[in-house]
Every structure is written in structure tokens, then in C-alpha cells.
Write a structure and sequence with these properties.
This protein is 41% helix and 16% strand. With 461 residues, it is of the alpha/beta class.
Length: 461
């Protein structure tokens, strides 16, 4: 009797991600594995990141586990469905019970169950997976397990929600020993000259951004003690010696009290690994920036999503665009790199808003910025608001929420060109700021591309 824990992200099947080559270990599955180990439940991890589905299936055929638990998110959904259909239809895999969990499951219960999955874990997985496995093995009434969904007489049955884990210090560390961490470190080193690992210090987010999914951890804020986090950093440094750490928390500096404790612990334990994190502009000030720098922070991603206050307010971001701009400039000034996120094509966005976003990026001048075109994730406030305005709703099994489109101010093609304009115009400005060190040919190319993209925007408007 055993469980195979796996996912369906195959790095080399994604040309863009394979080119970027910044993979991270599946931390959520590693946490569940660590918890199952603590409960003396035999489990085996199959990390598919550097593998493929056939090798994954071969592994499952060899193990013939009682349960196969698969993590599903927006990126991996199509592969997860293919994997489930094979496992439930071919005898050589032993017909295991299929359990799915992850952010894409919560608001697609019936769809996932009808693909062949036996049970869905809704929310945090450690306790639920343990109880569900024990119920399957002991043939106990599944309805007694909180936090799951299943089909009964073609109807979806949801058990009562599981109470969130309040004290995160009770969780064991993720079972990083269960997979080949060295592979991740090596590909990072080969591609970028330095290795990186992920660490989680909190669960949940107390904020209300309309486009953001809170399907797993909910709109909450729970945190591991700073002392335990720094002890984990010390262990990672001793065992794996990563060059950098990526804190995967939604808002790393949400609690200034915790940041002060974290800073004190890094000094007390004499541990400092360079790290990057994400936060909100209004949760940064001079004191916090200094503490972060002393603790080892070299890069902060500061959310903005738009340079237009109108759009920021429509997103329910609850922040002033000038506050974001000033936070980026202050962070740059103290010697910490900055990054920011931009989303184009949000409902109501027009040409004026896009121009304001360009001006914001030029003024704030973050070290890095990323751009996406807004898409509605099922279960979010954004999805509820635009549901009646959906113009493209592709087949669920063969598409993701990213392919859903809705009535926008302009066409989708317009915003595709807008992305090009923003990228080239802002990078043109960055090159100009280099002064005498600028590359004049690069300046000309970037400006030309920006003008061309703007022309195409006008044509498709």
C-alpha cells in the first residue's frame, strides 16, 4: 500500500520555459510528502519536471500504488487530464484511486471528476491527503473526510470544508530528499551562473485583488515562526549550498513585526543567503528596506499591475500608483534590484491607461518588469464580473483559462500589440538613461519597434 505523488509539468515540452530555464522544485507536493512521512505513510515522489509522461507512467506501473495524487494548476491542466485518462483505463497501472489537488481543482469539481478522477482535495492538502488515504485503505466511509469532493450517482458530493492549519510550525519541512534537487541547482548554474531554491514562510493572502485566485490557502494570513525559517535556510545552505533563495510568499513584508524577527534571527544564527521576494508598495518603508538588505535581500518584486489609477482601483488593488512608483525608486536607491508586474487588457482599459502605464514604468524605472494580458481565472471576482461578457470559451478539456476571452475596450490583437509597444518603449527609455554608455543602434531599433507597434495598435483599435 502506498501513494505516488506527482504533477504534470514537463519542462522540455514548453519551448518558452525551456529557453528561460528557471525551474523550481514542486514545493507543495514536497510538503505533503514530508507530512505523510511523519505519519509513517509510504509515499513515492515522481518529479516530472525534467521527465516526460511515458517515464512517469512507467514508474507508476512499477509501483502499482493504491493511490496516485496529482497536483493540477492552470499550466498543467491539459497534461493532468491526459494522465488521468490513461491511469483509469489501462490495467497495467493497477487501477489506483486518482486524487487531484491544487488551485485549478476548487472551481472545476465536476469537470475534473468526470475526466476520471476519484477524489478532489479542496484547499490545503497535508491533513486531507492523510485522512483520505487512510479512508481508502481501511475502506472507511469517504464522506467522513473533510475537504474533498467526489461523484456519487453522477452527482458531485462536497464534504464540509477543512479548517485551515493555524499553526504552520507544526508542519514538517518539505521532503526535498525525495527528488533530485541537484538537477535543479545544476540547470540554474549552467544557464544563469548561480543556483536558486524556493522557501515558503506563509500561507494565504489578506488582500482582495480581483484577478487573483485564493483557491488553496484562502484569503488569510498565517506564518511560520521566523526562527524556523532561518533554521531552514541554515539547513539548505549546509546541505545544498544554493546561491540564492526565492521566497514564494504572496506578500513577504505584510507583517513588519515578522520582518524584524526574521532580521534578528539571521543575525543571531549568523545566516545570510541572498534572496528575492514579492511584496506590496505600502508594506515597504525605509526601516523595512534596510532590514531586508541587511538580511540578504538583493531583489524585490513590487506589484503594480498598471500605471493607471483607474485600472488599479478597478482591480481592487487598494494602493496609490504614486506609492508604488516611490517604493520602486527607494528600493533602487538603497541598492536592491526591483521588479514589477504589468497586466494589460483589463476590463475598461483604454489607450490613455496604457500611456499612463508606460509613463509610470519610465518614471519608476524598475530593474525588471513582466507583462501579461489579463485573463479571467474561474473562481475569482474578475471571472464573475466578466462571465456574461465572455466571447471565447474553448473546450474545457483541451484549453486553459488563459484562452478565455471577453469583451474588452479594444480587440485582443490590439492588446497583443500594446504589449510590444510597452516593452520596446520602456526599454528604449532604459537605454537612453545610460547616457554616454548607451548603444545608439539599440536605441534606434527599440524606438522603431515601439512606433511600429503603436501603428498596429491604431489599425486594430
Amino acid at each position: 500500500m502506498s501513494i505516488v505523488l506527482t504533477h504534470a509539468y514537463y519542462l522540455y515540452e514548453d519551448p518558452i520555459e525551456a529557453k528561460i530555464m528557471k525551474p523550481y522544485a514542486p514545493l507543495g507536493l514536497l510538503y505533503i510528502s514530508g507530512y505523510l512521512n511523519e505519519q509513517n505513510i509510504e509515499n513515492h515522489l515522481f518529479d516530472a519536471t525534467f521527465s516526460n509522461q511515458q517515464k512517469q507512467l512507467d514508474f507508476i506501473a512499477t509501483q502499482k500504488p493504491k493511490v496516485v495524487a496529482i497536483y493540477a494548476n492552470l499550466m498543467t491542466k491539459i497534461n493532468v487530464i491526459k494522465l488521468v485518462k490513461v491511469l483509469v483505463s489501462e490495467e497495467k497501472y493497477g487501477f489506483p484511486k486518482i486524487v487531484l489537488g491544487g488551485p485549478d481543482v476548487t472551481f472545476n469539481l465536476e469537470n475534473y471528476l468526470k475526466t476520471g478522477a476519484h477524489y478532489l482535495v479542496i484547499g490545503e492538502g497535508e491533513q486531507t491527503m492523510t485522512e483520505l488515504y487512510q479512508a481508502v485503505v481501511q475502506e472507511i466511509n469517504i464522506s467522513q473526510v473533510d475537504g474533498i469532493a467526489y461523484l456519487e450517482n453522477e452527482h458531485v458530493i462536497k464534504t464540509p470544508p477543512r479548517e485551515k492549519i493555524k499553526d504552520l510550525s507544526t508542519l514538517p519541512l518539505p521532503n526535498r530528499e525525495g527528488i533530485n534537487i541537484s538537477k535543479y541547482l545544476q540547470v540554474w548554474k549552467d544557464k544563469h551562473g548561480k543556483s536558486s531554491m524556493t522557501v515558503n514562510t506563509q500561507r494565504g493572502c489578506p488582500y482582495t485583488c480581483k484577478w487573483c485566485s485564493t483557491a488553496v490557502y484562502g484569503q488569510s494570513y498565517r506564518r511560520r515562526p521566523a526562527k524556523l525559517v532561518v533554521e531552514e535556510l541554515a539547513m539548505l545552505q549546509k546541505k545544498y549550498n544554493p546561491d540564492t533563495i526565492w521566497f514564494v510568499d504572496d506578500v513577504f513584508t505584510v507583517s513588519h513585526k515578522w520582518i524584524r524577527e526574521f532580521h534578528s534571527e539571521t543575525k543571531r544564527q549568523n545566516r545570510s543567503i541572498p534572496f528575492e521576494c514579492i511584496t506590496r508598495a505600502e508594506r515597504l518603508n525605509d526601516e523595512i528596506l534596510q532590514l531586508l538588505k541587511e538580511a540578504g535581500c538583493y531583489r524585490i518584486w513590487i506589484g503594480a499591475e498598471s500605471g493607471s489609477q483607474k485600472i488599479i482601483d478597478a482591480m481592487d488593488r487598494r494602493v496609490d500608483v504614486n506609492t508604488v512608483s516611490e517604493a520602486i525608486k527607494k528600493t533602487n536607491a538603497i541598492g536592491i534590484e526591483t521588479g514589477t508586474f504589468i497586466m494589460l487588457g483589463y476590463p475598461g482599459e483604454d489607450e490613455k491607461d496604457i500611456n499612463e502605464t508606460i509613463n509610470y514604468l519610465k518614471k519608476a524605472n524598475p530593474t525588471y518588469f513582466t507583462i501579461t494580458i489579463a485573463y479571467p481565472i474561474k473562481g475569482t471576482s474578475l471571472y464573475s464580473e466578466i462571465e456574461k461578457e465572455i466571447t471565447v470559451q474553448p473546450n474545457w478539456e483541451t484549453s486553459t483559462d488563459r484562452q478565455i476571452d471577453f469583451k474588452r475596450t479594444y480587440s485582443r490583437k490590439y492588446y497583443d500589440y500594446a504589449v510590444r509597444r510597452v516593452v520596446n518603449e520602456v526599454n528604449y527609455n532604459k537605454e537612453l538613461l545610460k547616457g554616454k554608455n548607451r548603444n545608439n543602434l539599440k536605441v534606434l531599433k527599440l524606438k522603431t519597434k515601439s512606433i511600429l507597434a503603436n501603428g498596429l495598435m491604431m489599425i486594430t483599435k
